[in-house]
Structure formats: structure tokens, C-alpha cells
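[Discussion] Sanity-checking designs against the backbone

I'm trying to build intuition for which residues belong where. Below is a C-alpha cell string of 284 positions. I'd appreciate it if someone posts a full sequence so I can compare it with mine line by line.
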């Protein structure tokens, strides 16, 4: 429906795409943007076609043997919000000011009722809300806290999405309270609200709060709202910075592209996927 896309090509499979476009499998990156239930099937299809470079959208969750069994593949999970100027600024303030976070709160909410009842992001079964935006929120908190290994789940709450007589179980709303080392982390996502929210709030010692609000765009990628990062102490804003451009997806893909094109493959992306998998398994 994006009005900026004037032409598109649709293929029935990866293999047919390669054949019709006469593509070189050594010069292909496949980005898997499907429900997580078929991630591994598509990865194995790529492997059979000798495609080595694979991007997987969140939540890409693997067991500890996965990389040992597929050491010939280069795989990275798209974690674009980690590259956002908003998240980078928050991390920068924490480090520069030597702040100690005590609570991190993230909220990614929007009205997805129509899209969800039309089956967006689902394949043969209803996906849980936790499988959609919460993964972004998880890796953001991991990044801000330098990837703590110890996560305790204190509370997990899920609600259905309802419209008339139709119900999508566990799809409408989710809230998670965790403790990462000594920091409390709260993630919230509501797919039935009319208020679009995408924010990260870090409460630190000495009554200092850092609040980041992301930019919003419409379906044609026209900007609706600038982003902002504010530092607040005792409920008074002591610093505020507007973010009017934030192409975090580009920065993420550029970093992964460099990783795919190095002779010595970095362990960084595999470690990120392992840490992310360990935490998401607690919720799923």
C-alpha cells in the first residue's frame, strides 16, 4: 500500500527468484521476515541452495547447538533499534555521566487490530504479542545494561485481542517485569490502543531520568513526529535534544553487511543471538 513503491516483483520461492533473475548465490543476502515458526525451515532451504549470508528478523531464537551445526552460515538477527540515535544517546549519557540505572521501562504500543485480524505476522496459528515488539525492547535493555547474563522473571502478563466474536489469544497485550542483575526492567506492548507509543525510560540513582521517544512515520514513510531525548532530575527537564532523522535500519544493515564481508567472522552477532535467545526462552 506504500505509495512510494511503483513496481514490485513477487516470487513463489527463493529458488525461483534465483533462477528467474539469474542470481549468483555467492552474492545474495536473504532477509527472513516471516513468523518465527518457519525461520528454521527457510534457513535450511537457504543452506540447501548454498546461500551463506542470512538475516533473520526478531525473535530469532536458537538452541546452543545451532551455531555448531551450522558453522558454515553467516547469520545475524536484525536489531535495528540498538542502532537508533535515541538509544545511542541514552547509552552515551549513562556512560559519560557515570549514571547507575535502577529501573528501565520500555513501551512499544500501537493499534494493530485491523492488521492482526487480517493475519499479519501469523502462519497457521495466532502469534503472541510477545513475539512482535517485545523482542526489540529486550535487546534494547540488554544493550543499555551491557548484556547482563542473569535475568529473573518477576511477572508476565498477557491479554487477548478481541473484535466482535473474534478473539486472538495472548495477542493484544503483554507486560513483563524482570530483574537483570540489580536493575528492574519493565516491558509493555499494547496492540489495541489508539495511542501510538515508542519510548525508553531509564531511571537512575540521584533521581535522574533519561527518556527517549522515537520518531514516527506513516505508511509512505512521511515523518509524523520527531524523536527526543531528555534528561530529567526531580521532575525538571535539565537537558532536551530533538532527533529529526534516525535511519536505524540502514545503520543496522550496514553493520551486518560489513560483518558478512570480513575474512574473519566476528563472534559478536552469534553471541548477541545466544544471549537474546536465553532471555526470550524465559517468556516463550
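Best answer:
Here's mine. Compare freely.
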Amino acid at each position: 500500500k506504500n505509495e512510494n513503491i511503483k513496481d514490485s516483483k513477487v516470487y513463489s520461492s527463493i529458488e525461483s527468484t534465483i533462477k528467474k533473475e539469474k542470481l549468483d548465490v555467492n552474492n545474495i543476502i536473504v532477509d527472513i521476515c516471516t513468523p518465527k515458526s518457519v525461520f528454521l525451515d527457510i534457513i535450511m532451504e537457504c543452506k540447501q541452495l548454498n546461500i551463506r549470508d542470512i538475516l533473520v528478523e526478531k525473535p530469532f531464537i536458537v538452541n546452543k547447538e545451532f551455531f555448531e551445526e551450522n558453522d558454515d552460515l553467516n547469520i545475524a538477527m536484525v536489531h535495528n533499534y540498538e542502532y537508533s540515535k535515541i538509544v545511542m544517546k541514552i547509552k552515551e549519557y549513562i556512560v559519560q555521566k557515570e549514571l547507575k540505572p535502577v529501573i528501565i521501562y520500555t513501551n512499544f504500543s500501537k493499534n494493530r487490530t485491523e492488521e492482526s485480524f487480517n493475519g499479519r505476522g501469523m502462519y497457521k496459528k495466532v502469534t503472541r504479542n510477545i513475539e512482535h515488539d517485545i523482542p526489540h525492547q529486550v535487546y534494547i535493555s540488554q544493550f543499555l545494561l551491557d548484556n547482563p547474563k542473569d535475568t529473573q522473571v518477576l511477572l508476565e502478563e498477557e491479554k487477548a485481542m478481541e473484535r466482535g466474536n473474534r478473539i486472538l489469544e495472548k495477542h493484544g497485550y503483554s507486560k513483563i517485569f524482570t530483574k537483570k542483575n540489580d536493575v528492574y526492567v519493565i516491558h509493555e506492548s499494547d496492540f489495541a490502543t489508539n495511542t501510538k507509543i515508542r519510548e525508553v525510560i531509564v531511571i537512575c540513582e540521584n533521581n535522574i531520568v533519561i527518556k527517549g521517544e522515537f520518531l514516527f512515520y506513516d505508511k509512505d514513510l512521511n515523518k509524523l513526529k520527531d524523536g527526543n531525548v531528555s534528561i530529567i532530575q526531580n521532575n525538571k527537564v535539565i537537558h532536551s535534544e530533538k532527533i529529526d532523522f534516525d535511519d536505524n535500519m540502514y545503520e543496522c544493515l550496514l553493520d551486518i553487511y560489513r560483518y558478512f564481508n570480513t575474512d574473519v567472522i566476528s563472534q559478536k552477532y552469534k553471541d548477541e543471538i545466544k544471549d537474546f535467545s536465553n532471555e526470550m526462552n524465559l517468556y516463550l
